[in-house]
Amino acid sequence: MQSRGRVRGYLALGRSAGLDPDERSLVDTAGLLLTAEWAKEDALVLPARRHRRALLQVLLEGRRDVARNLGEILRVPTPDDTVRAALLGVPRHYRGDLVEAVEQDPALQRVETIVAEIRPGRVGVVLSAAEGDVRTLEAILRRVPFARGAVSEPTPIEDLPDQWRRVRSVFDAASDVTGRLYETRDLSDAGLLRHLQSDDAIAWANAVLAPIVALNEGSKVDFLQTLRAFLGNNGQVDSSATALGIHRHTLRYRMSRIADTLEWDLDDPTARAELWMALRLAHE
């Protein structure tokens, strides 16, 4: 059953004999009532979406006071402090699935979030930074066919326009791997990675990380995640330990296990660069 060009549901009937004219008319009427109900819902949803799009545009342009006033008029809670900006995309055929997945996500509904389709197949999101926000966006991308995206790091809302430009740059430069969410800190290697998605490069990355994958087996410790956090924080022990929620001595122990397993010197900048590239390329 379709509404506004999209499949919205299915109606299945099963019986041993065919339908007589009266029964067929009854089924047709039920279908019409369902599509009429969807049309009624759309009549309410579409104006609200236009309002959110206007509010999102004002936010992304850096007009913070205007956005706050507009949010009060529209009765839409507006993020105001530390935020993330995200750009999510799908082929046009799945645009409705993406919009609904973001709008109806329970985790996003619990924080101040502005969601709007900025053009067909592209959804902009500004949300209050919160624990687990990146995982929430990643989960949405996994639910929608062929979805991918880019997200900023937590940033003061006054820096939102600059972060939005970076998000768009990462989205445009990164590969179109389904379900992948890039972060703006990936800007320096997103364009390069786009040219390294060969089978040989991925095989190299998997081979480099294979000893750590083996180390993970039978262990409660995620050594790959430990390495990713360590490299992502430029090898800073305190920052890496904080990101993982562990003591710095625990981090040092884990990193020594990783270094011994790989037989690599992790103080070597070249070794760190190769491991970071392997983490970005590997199929986990």
Walk me through the structure.
With 284 residues, this protein is an alpha+beta fold. The chain folds into two domains: 48-194, Alpha-Beta Plaits (2-Layer Sandwich); 199-281, Arc Repressor Mutant, subunit A. It has twelve helices and eight strands. The protein has helices at 21-60, 64-74, 95-103, 106-109, 133-143, 160-173, 187-194, 199-216, 223-232, 237-244, 248-262, 269-281, and strands spanning 2-3, 6-7, 82-89, 113-119, 122-128, 148-151, 155-156, 181-183. Strands 3, 4, 5, 6, 7 and 8 form a six-stranded mixed β-sheet that branches. A two-stranded antiparallel ribbon has the order 1-2. Strand 4 and strand 5 form a beta hairpin. Helix 8 packs across helix 12. The chain is globular and about 80 Å long.
Radius of gyration: 24 Å
Shape: globular
The rounded distance between the terminal residues' Cα atoms is: 38 Å
User: How many structural domains are formed by the residues?
Assistant: 2
Number of helices: 12
Q: Under the CATH scheme, which architecture of the largest domain would be assigned?
A: 2-Layer Sandwich
β-strand number? 8
Low-pLDDT parts are: none
Beta fraction: 5-15%
Q: Structural class, please?
A: alpha+beta
CATH topology of the largest domain: Alpha-Beta Plaits
Main β-sheet, in a few words? Answer: 6 strands, mixed
Using the coordinates above, name the CATH class of the largest domain.
Answer: Alpha Beta
Order of helices and strands: EEHHEHHEEHEEHEHHHHHH
Mean pLDDT: 84
- The residue fraction in helices comes out at 55-70%
